[in-house]
User: Fold HMG box domain-containing protein from Gigaspora rosea.
Amino acid sequence: MAAAELDINFPPKIKVDEFLSNESEYRQPPNAYMIYRKVYNRTLKSKRMRLSLTSVSKLSSASWKKAPAEVKGWYKKFAAEVRQQHRKMYLRYKEVRPGPMKSDVSSCKVWIFVPENPGQI
Assistant:
């Protein structure tokens, strides 16, 4: 079976906690595609298919683009649950959008660490 024809169980058996490790405080929560990619990679591993991470990204991206709206909607809803749980656990984080810049990065999200005691910086 080629990896591009990989059958991914839907809905996958995943939990929000799997995407909230101890290091999550310093990272933004994953979006719908990144969760899909992780499930895709796990499926490859369960079928004993070993590919480079670059190949996994290319294949999962192609699979994501072909996925029906129902599948994408489920992953988007799950990603929102992960993001909501992340916000509850790490209240010191806030998501901001940068102001106008001269480069194309003005549309990206930036996560800012807000110290508990700003006077101690």
User: Anything to note?
Assistant: The chain has one domain: 7-91.
